[in-house]
Amino acid sequence: MARRSMPVLKHLLTSSSTPTLRRSVTYMPRPGDGAPRPVTLIPGDGIGPLVTNAVEQVMEAMHAPVYFEKYDIHGDMMRVPSEVIESIKKNKVCLKGGLATPMGGGVSSLNVQLRKELDLYASLVNCFNLQGLPTR
């Protein structure tokens, strides 16, 4: 694989024009009054608490104007508590770690319950091509 990519890399490095990256930039202004905003936090199961804890540390290091309303939800619960749904609707932002999905029995996972309750059905991913790099 490395041998096949070498000609492409050599071409990119020796080409006379430097490829320009054109990405759309999403800009989200800070709140007008500068007050910290609440974010619903569901650490989840497995590595979820590790990941969400890392995000909390990054936000703290950045002095981001947010604070977390943390809820202890686990994949083996039967339903998402109503106060969690209310918090997400009120805050309009939620950071959620992975939740375990029960196997068999036609049991609906908490992930599916959250998507249905909050009417979340889109997964948008931004991508871009590098000029001069052959892609599909």
Automatic annotation (TrEMBL):
MF terms from GO for this chain are:
isocitrate dehydrogenase (NAD+) activity
Q: Which Pfam families match?
A: Iso_dh
The Isopropylmalate dehydrogenase-like domain is annotated at 39-129
The Gene Ontology CC terms held by the record are: mitochondrion
The record's annotation in SUPFAM superfamilies points to: Isocitrate/Isopropylmalate dehydrogenase-like
A single BP term in Gene Ontology: isocitrate metabolic process
Family, per the entry?
Answer: Belongs to the isocitrate and isopropylmalate dehydrogenases family.
Return the protein name.
Isopropylmalate dehydrogenase-like domain-containing protein
- Which organism encodes this protein? Salix purpurea (Purple osier willow)
